[in-house]
Every structure is written in C-alpha cells, then in structure tokens.
Design a protein that fits this description.
Protein name: DUF899 family protein
Number of helices: 6
Structural class: alpha/beta
Radius of gyration: 18 Å
Strand content: 25-35%
Strand order of the largest sheet: 5-4-3-6-7
InterPro entries: DUF899_thioredox
Largest sheet: 5 strands, mixed
Number of domains: 1
Helix content: 10-25%
Shape: globular
CATH superfamily: Glutaredoxin
Distance between the termini: 44 Å
Length: about 160
C-alpha cells in the first residue's frame, strides 16, 4: 500500500491506496460552441485499446466543460466510441487544476473516495502519443514550428 495526498474542497487529506478500481480522465479543452481544440483532438484520436485497459481494472473517460451534446456530436463526427462526460456547470475542472485547459489525471478508488495518483498537462500529455514518441527519436524531430531547428529543416504548424 502507498500513501498519497489529494486536494479537494475539504482540503488536503491522506489516502491509503489499495488495489481497487482505477480511472483515467482526459479533460478535453472547451474553446467555444463551434470550435474544438486541435491538440485535444489529436490526442483523443490516439486513444485505442480500451478493452485492454478494462482488463487491468482501468476505466477511461473523456470529460469536457462543453455541453455533452456538443462533445458527443464531435465524437460521432470523428468516429470516437470512448466514454464521454460533461463537467459543464460543475467545479470539476477547477478542482482538478485543468481550469480552461486540458489535463490527464489518474484516480484510484479507495472505498467511497477517489484519490488522484497522477496528473499531467501540456508536453506531459504529448509524451503519451505514439507518433510523437517516435518522431522525438528521429533527427528532424516533430518538425513543428515551435522546435528550434536549423535553417532549411522541414517544419510544419503545430497540430497542423
């Protein structure tokens, strides 16, 4: 067993972790009624093999502050079949630290409590993408405009 602390509205408290249900939550950024985050889209496109996770007692859900109808419609358009939820009208994004951005969190169920055991955003989420991991090993890298590449090396818009 491992001890960890979590933050919530009731403040910080210790939580003893046991081998129980685990949940991975990806918070998809809400950027408006007719717009979708291209980075969140690229990440969600890469989410595969959820049955393998389920076989290891790991559930997945993609959450967003956008209305569920908007998220579900976009998921149908993209061909996503993963579990979706809306946190619109709740403090979930603020409570987890995502605010208006994106975030990946891992939770462990401990009785009635859910303890967050891992959280990352920005380039920490990028590291979970297979193609990015491979491209980071190559001489030209991701070839994205944010990289400090020598003059003449190929570069493309980020998430373009």
């Amino acid at each position: 067993m491992t001890n960890t602390t979590r933050s919530g509205r009731s403040g910080r408290r210790s939580c003893r972790l046991r081998s129980r249900g685990q949940l991975v939550v990806y918070q998809f950024m809400d950027i408006g009624p007719d717009a979708f985050c291209s980075g969140c889209t690229a990440f969600t496109d890469s989410v595969v093999d959820l049955p393998k996770l389920a076989g290891r007692d790991v559930a997945w859900v993609t959450v967003s502050d956008m209305p569920l109808a908007q998220l579900s419609g976009y998921a149908a358009e993209r061909g996503w079949t993963l579990p979706l939820a809306s946190s619109r009208g709740t403090t979930f994004s603020a409570d987890t630290g995502a605010g208006g951005g994106f975030l990946l969190s891992v939770f462990l169920r401990d009785g009635e409590d859910a303890c967050r055991t891992y959280s990352t955003t920005q380039r920490g989420v990028d590291r979970l993408l297979f193609a990015h991991n491979i491209l980071d090993l190559t001489p030209y890298g991701r070839q994205e405009e944010w990289e400090d590449s020598p003059l003449g090396w190929p570069q493309f818009p980020t998430y373009g």
